[in-house]
Specification:
Elements: E1 3-8, H1 12-15, H2 18-21, H3 43-53, E2 57-61, H4 71-86, E3 92-94, E4 96-97, H5 103-115, E5 121-125, H6 139-148, E6 151-155, H7 171-190, H8 193-196, E7 202-204, H9 206-210, H10 215-222, H11 224-227, H12 243-249, E8 251-254, H13 262-271, E9 277-278, H14 290-301, H15 305-313
Parallel strand pairs: 1-2, 2-3, 4-5, 5-6, 6-7, 7-8, 8-9
Length: about 325
């Protein structure tokens, strides 16, 4: 069964909510507004294009409930997404949308999503509220996800903290969001989050922002003695295990966000492991057509056993669809 772990949908009734229409992400400004192709709100288009590409199941997430949104919007997203999935349980499941820094009410919403709505995972952005993932304020969220046995999908921050220098040439979307994912992956590891929460499962979007191509540099900087940072209060910090332990045994990575690039997939296979990569498309925001979906599936399948693991074999590590 081929499972798409990064597949976006917005229930059309949500777009009409006054609270959604007033969201800053939908306003013109230095950051490009959230783009909404017609397929994004048309679940029949999703089924049509999934069928054409041979994708059996999609794990849905909604951009309206990811980044800096209110409890009201998150509840509306969770309820609406649940109604959509109930009509086609074989084809769709959804993730819980709740602000990880939203306090007790947001955490109760996460519990509702698990216990009442049956969700098996949650989605956040790489810099929730401008906060890094290793910030101690995130610990109650991590602890609850671990206790509820919900994996966490980390989508790139829609408005990453990269500064005004990237507010031109669409640099925030082309590089800023990927930089955020790569940076926060290193923070999760060196900040000890995965050591403190040994049962926590985390899926980093976009192959961790292309981190694979920089891994030799990252590994070299982990050698604190060689780099002269032993004992430094900020730069001498190391996790409990070797860095690659977390890449190859603790984290998962999805193939979305790369517009179907097989060079990015091959680099991730080399540096991470094909057993830690799950299939993702970013449909319909980046891969936009059934033709592109089909080509991406064919190209990954052509990798043989590694491709089979990515398309289907690794899915059970994150969700049980039986």
């Amino acid at each position: 069964m081929i499972v798409d772990f990064q597949h976006h949908f917005t229930p059309p009734e949500l777009v009409r909510m006054p609270a959604v229409q007033s969201m800053s992400i939908n306003k013109a400004g230095s950051t490009p507004p959230y783009r909404m192709p017609v397929e994004l709100t048309d679940i029949t288009a999703h089924v049509r294009d999934m069928d054409a590409a041979g994708i059996d199941h999609a794990v849905l997430s909604c951009g309206l409930g990811m980044d800096g949104t209110t409890l009201e919007i998150c509840v509306a997203v969770n309820d609406a997404m649940t109604r959509v999935c109930a009509q086609a349980r074989r084809r769709f499941s959804t993730l819980a949308h709740a602000d990880p820094l939203g306090g007790p009410q947001a955490l109760r919403e996460l519990e509702r999503c698990r216990h009442e709505l049956g969700m098996k995972g949650a989605v956040i952005v790489s810099e929730p509220g401008g906060t890094n993932l290793d910030d101690a304020r995130m610990d109650p969220y991590w602890e609850l996800c671990e206790r509820l046995d919900m994996y966490v999908f980390v989508h790139p921050a829609l408005r990453p903290s990269v500064g005004d220098s990237m507010n031109r040439y669409d640099l925030i979307r082309s590089l800023g969001r990927e930089f955020s994912l790569a940076t926060e992956t290193v923070r999760l590891i060196n900040g000890g989050v995965l050591d403190r929460f040994e049962g926590l499962r985390v899926q980093m979007g976009h192959l961790a922002g292309g981190l694979a191509v920089s891994m030799e540099r990252v590994r070299a900087l982990q050698d604190k003695e060689r780099m002269g940072t032993v004992g430094h209060p900020e730069h001498g910090i190391l996790p409990r295990h070797d860095f690659d332990h977390y890449l190859r045994q603790r984290l998962w990575f999805d193939t979305a966000g790369i517009f179907g690039s097989m060079s990015a997939v091959r680099a991730a296979i080399d540096e991470f492991s094909p057993r830690r990569i799950v299939f993702g498309t970013d449909y319909p925001l980046e891969i936009l057509s059934a033709q592109d979906l089909s080509r991406f599936v064919r190209d990954i399948r052509a990798l043989g056993d590694d491709g089979g693991a990515i398309l289907a074999g690794n899915a059970g590590d994150l969700i049980n669809l039986n």
